[in-house]
């Protein structure tokens, strides 16, 4: 096992050890080339090595190695496509984890420019910006809701977030506020127990996803709880290389979630942490155990499920979901399977959930080019758009008016390029039930 997979190893932040591992992995990737189609990082890597007669990856300069890192958006698709991953091959190759380690070494050395650091903070402090956004929602949405507008261009110059991107609107009422005020039904014999981890996207912006998830659970006699004290999962900081801040947020969430799990089990329940956003679900399942390395982090990971994954599990193992659909169900829909959901190797649970309603989904499993917050940065806009061309072309070719996707940020990219605003799968299910969308 290489140093890359142990963030607590004394050599993890040693640049010489990192460069040696880069040489090893780059050489293996150059010889394989199976992942040429995913992002520009691989063609760039292959071009750098191909220009040497002996095709020796060790002859790449540090700047060239880092160029590959900057072009990787950590979609993780190369990991699920790679035949040499840990546990499957003696070469133990995990390209996305290596790229994260390289970002972390750069951050530790303080190599980023002032502008990059400002962008990192703007994208990372989502709980701060979310709370401010909720307090100023009407004004904030009017100023920042139009891509390419003057205020958005000023914002791009100030903090580096692309002025062309569609940003999620700020909700005047946060999801947690709505949840605390609702009249929760009390089923005599609940089918299941859901501990909600709504994510910052649902808490501050796309609150409708959380509301519909709760209403779908109510419809199916699933009790929901929302433990107070949750924060952003920390993914923006992790992807920027700021492991220290990521761990702080992760540790806070793990404390809250393990307490809720233990309390539920003490009541004789079998709880699950239900997450309606793919990146955040991935972080809780895979990154918390690796970067926190505690038993509690493992407990959280073992209990974490994606929202559609959870509902399908209840349908198959927990007594079944209600399949009486009296609302609107289009004959055909287009479903986008996000990268960070596919990377969880759970199958296409959202597609299966859609099929319960009777609709016929056309699945498009292509990258949107967003992947966390990478595609929101102004310097990555052109590369992200190029990366998403197959997805956008696939949606146009399918020709369906209704598009469904689990990732709110990817959905913003889809809306920008195609004009179609996707629904989350639980929102589609709620409309199929006839549950009205709240204003």
Biggest pleated-sheet summary? 4 strands, parallel
CATH architecture assignment of the largest domain: Up-down Bundle
> Could you report the average pLDDT, rounded to the nearest whole number?
94
What's the number of helices? 23
What global shape is seen?
globular
Radius of gyration (Å): 22 Å
Number of domains: 4
Describe the structure.
With 439 residues, the chain is an alpha/beta fold. It has four domains: 3-109, no CATH class; 114-159, no CATH class; 175-317, Glutathione S-transferase Yfyf (Class Pi), Chain A, domain 2 (Up-down Bundle), CATH 1.20.1050; 332-433, Rossmann fold (3-Layer(aba) Sandwich), CATH 3.40.50. The protein contains 23 helices and seven strands. The strands form two sheets. It has a four-stranded parallel β-sheet with strand order 2-1-3-4, with helices on both faces. Strands 6-5-7 form a three-stranded parallel β-sheet, sandwiched between helices. Helix 15 runs antiparallel to helix 16. The longest helix is centred in the middle third of the chain and has 24 residues, at 243-266. It is globular and about 70 Å long. The mean pLDDT is 94.
């Amino acid at each position: 096992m290489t140093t890359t997979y142990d963030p607590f190893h004394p050599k993890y932040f040693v640049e010489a050890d990192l460069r040696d591992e880069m040489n090893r992995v780059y050489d293996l990737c150059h010889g394989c080339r199976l992942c040429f189609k995913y992002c520009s990082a691989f063609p760039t890597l292959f071009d750098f090595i191909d220009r040497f007669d002996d095709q020796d990856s060790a002859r790449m300069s540090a700047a060239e190695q880092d160029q590959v890192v900057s072009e990787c958006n950590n979609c993780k698709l190369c990991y699920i496509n790679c035949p040499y991953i840990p546990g499957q091959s003696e070469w133990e190759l995990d390209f996305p984890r290596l790229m994260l380690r390289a970002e972390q070494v750069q951050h530790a050395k303080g190599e980023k420019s002032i502008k990059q650091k400002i962008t990192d903070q703007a994208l990372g402090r989502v709980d701060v910006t979310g709370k401010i956004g909720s307090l100023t929602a009407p004004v904030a949405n009017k100023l920042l809701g139009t891509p390419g507008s003057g205020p958005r261009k000023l914002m791009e110059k100030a903090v580096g977030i692309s002025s062309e991107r569609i940003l999620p609107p700020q909700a005047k009422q946060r999801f947690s506020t709505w949840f605390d005020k609702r009249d929760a039904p009390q089923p005599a014999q609940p089918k299941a127990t859901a501990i909600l981890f709504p994510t910052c996207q649902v808490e501050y912006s796309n609150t409708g996803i959380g509301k519909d998830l709760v209403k779908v659970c109510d419809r199916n006699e699933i009790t929901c709880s929302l433990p107070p004290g949750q924060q952003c999962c920390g993914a923006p900081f992790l992807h920027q290389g700021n492991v220290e801040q990521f761990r702080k947020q992760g540790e806070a969430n793990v404390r809250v979630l393990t307490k809720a799990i233990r309390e539920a089990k003490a009541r004789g329940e079998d709880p699950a942490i239900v997450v309606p956003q793919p990146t955040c679900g991935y972080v809780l399942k895979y990154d918390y155990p690796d970067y926190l390395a505690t038993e509690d982090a493992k407990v959280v990971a073992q209990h974490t499920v994606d929202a559609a994954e959870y509902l399908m599990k209840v349908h198959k193992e927990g007594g079944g979901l209600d399949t009486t659909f009296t609302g609107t169900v289009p004959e055909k829909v287009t479903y986008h399977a996000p990268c960070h959901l596919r990377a969880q190797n759970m199958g296409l649970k959202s597609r299966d959930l859609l099929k319960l309603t009777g609709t016929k989904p056309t699945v498009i499993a292509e990258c949107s080019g967003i992947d966390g917050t990478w595609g929101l940065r102004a310097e990555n806009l052109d590369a992200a758009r190029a990366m998403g061309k197959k997805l956008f072309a696939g949606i146009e070719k399918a020709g369906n008016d209704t598009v469904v996707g689990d990732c709110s940020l990817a959905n913003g990219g889809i809306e920008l390029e195609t004009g179609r605003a996707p629904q989350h799968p639980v929102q589609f299910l709620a409309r199929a039930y006839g549950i009205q969308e709240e204003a």
